[in-house]
Predict the 3D structure of the following.
Amino acid sequence: MSSNAKLQVRTVVYLSDHGPDTDPVHEHSAKENLLAAAEGDKDSARRAWIEADLPETGSVSARQLSGTLARLPLADTV
């Protein structure tokens, strides 16, 4: 019995956007953003990074970075 059956293949792709909190932020970019938010105050930026318990090297999540930014002292607005 010979047949010319065609093989049909379906590919199902499930795409989901878990939001920006899951995208890693490269260490250099994260530290640059933190330093800019600290208005160049390296001590405040370093203290916020350490208090947030972020790794010395490697990427961080956007959520971790935003938590670290929240640890910065408020700027004096006169």
